[in-house]
Design brief:
Mean pLDDT: 84
Organism: Plakobranchus ocellatus
Keywords: Endonuclease, Hydrolase, Nuclease, Nucleotidyltransferase, RNA-directed DNA polymerase, Transferase
Order of helices and strands: EEEHHEHHEH
Number of helices: 5
Helix content: 25-40%
GO molecular function: endonuclease activity; hydrolase activity; RNA-directed DNA polymerase activity
Protein name: Retrovirus-related pol polyprotein from transposon 17.6
Largest sheet: 5 strands, mixed
Low-confidence stretches: none
Pfam family, one: RT_RNaseH
Strand content: 25-35%
Length: about 130
């Protein structure tokens, strides 16, 4: 069940990716406010895992832009290397990941690790693959 967005409450995003597509859920007080998922394009399906996982964060931030822009957002991930990406120097990554990081810069976010992302995991696996 979705709840109404509260402007004064803190925001967190849980996102996950699988071979079919990214899934994300916007949360306030551990309750769902909005959900999003999509299937990957043919080109995106050939991305390395780290690039797909970084794309998932970008997808979630851009999909929930009206909710997270201008406020502190906590992004929870299961994928530990993605947590480290936002903390390391920008020039240490391939060009595609650098472009993803540039798309994340307008947002005030903190990326942390969480083991169980049940809703986001379900959304990422629930995409319909079209060819």
């Amino acid at each position: 069940m979705l709840r109404i967005f509260g402007v004064t409450k803190s925001v967190s995003i849980e996102c996950d990716s699988c071979k079919d597509g990214p899934g994300a859920v916007l949360l306030q007080e551990e309750q769902s406010v909005a959900c999003a998922s999509r299937s990957l394009t043919a080109a995106e399906q050939h991305y390395a895992e780290i690039k797909r996982e970084t794309l998932t964060i970008v997808f979630a931030l851009e999909r929930f832009h009206h909710f997270v822009y201008g406020r502190k957002a906590l992004v929870r991930r299961y994928h530990k290397p993605t947590v480290a990406i936002v903390k390391r120097p920008f020039n240490k990554y391939p060009a595609r990941i650098q472009r993803f990081l540039l798309r994340m810069q307008p947002y005030d976010l903190e990326v942390s690790e969480k083991k169980e992302l049940i809703i986001a995991d379900t959304l990422s696996r629930g995409t319909e693959v079209t060819s």
